Amino acid sequence: MSPSLIDAAGIGKEYCIGSRTIAVLNNVDFSVKKGEFVAVMGPSGSGKSTLLHILGCLDRPSAGTYRFDDRDVLSASDRELSRLRAEYIGFVFQTFNLVSALNIYENVELPFLYSSRRASLAHKRITEAIDQVGLGKRMNHKPAELSGGEMQRVAIARAISIEPKLILADEPTGNLDTGTGAEILELFRRLHQEGVTIVMVTHDRSVADSAQRCVQLVDGKVGSG
Ligand SMILES: Nc1ncnc2c1ncn2[C@@H]1O[C@H](COP(=O)(O)OP(=O)(O)OP(=O)(O)O)[C@@H](O)[C@H]1O
Ligand SMILES: [Mg+2]
Predict the structure, then answer these.
(1) What atom in ligand 1 is closest to the CA of residue 201?
(2) Is the C-beta atom of 46 inside 6 A of ligand 1?
(3) Which residues surround ligand 2, an ion (CB under 5 A)?
(4) Does 64 contact ligand 1 (Cβ within 6 A)?
(5) What atom of ligand 1 comes closest to residue 50's alpha carbon?
């Protein structure tokens, strides 16, 4: 059996708004083995993005334990977590999150500005990643010159350029038409076949069907399905 990349147990998350406390996640257990492709489904407001942010070390839970690649990340400092993110985790968002003033190459280069990798290696990885998503001939184009599907390809190139241990995708096809979304899912399936571990949030069952396994989040609790 392959080892776990993600091992989160008893995860709770509460937000305090004024004197009110809102429990968003309640005792969530979530594990992912190396090389798995897992979908997280659930209705709006069920805590999917909150869970993804915790798994990506962008946010800390209020309760529970989290081991990433056999490392206790909750005891790490914010600085250590930034480094862990920059080296091991690629993020893909519904709204692409590209920097409009930068061209494709420069957008994909961004994670390397926070990493200790050598510049020559970075250049090789950036061009390879852009080739991998089929945009090799458009390195100098700015996001405004691209379609939604192409912008999402750039975001995926940025995520895979660092050769991450994990890709976290939050509704990656949410802003795309069905055909373009299918192309993006095909790209994820190819990355999965190449051995990348992927956790993808979606509220769409047909999108979740691209994954190997699906976890349901309902009212901050995990079920299966
Ligand atoms: N920073 C915050 N402060 C207070 N409440 C928050 C915060 N972030 C999220 N929430 C609340 O937590 C709940 C879960 O939000 P979350 O974004 O995780 O849901 P989601 O499942 O991703 O929903 P959607 O499908 O609409 O993206 C919501 O009720 C939201 O209002
Ligand atoms: Mg969300």
Answers:
(1) 22
(2) yes
(3) 49
(4) no
(5) 18
Q: State the ligand closest to the CA atom of 41.
A: 1
Cα 38 to Cα 45: distance, rounded to the nearest angstrom: 20
Fold of domain 35-60+77-224: Rossmann fold (3.40.50)
pTM listed for this prediction: 0.93
CA dist 173 and 152 (Å) reads 8
Q: List the domain boundaries for the chain.
A: 35-60+77-224
Tens digits of residue pLDDT in 164-217: 999 999 999 999 999 999 999 999 999 999 999 999 999 999 999 999 999 999
- Of all atoms in ligand 1, which is nearest to the CA of residue 22? 5
CA distances, 44 to each of 1, 47, 94, 158 (Å): 34, 8, 14, 27
How close is the Cα of 15 to the center of ligand 1, in Å? 10
The strand order across the sheet containing 221-224 reads 89-93, 166-170, 197-201, 37-41, 213-218, 221-224
> Band of the pLDDT at 32, cuts 50, 70, 90?
very high
Q: What is the pLDDT of residues 99-118, one digit of tens each?
A: 999 999 999 999 888 777 77
Task: Name the residue at shortest CA distance from atom 27 of ligand 1.
Answer: 44
> Would the CB of 53 count as within 6 Å of ligand 1?
no
Residue 33 has a CB neighbour count (10 Å cut-off) of 16
Determine how many CB atoms are found less than 10 A away from the CB of residue 182. 16
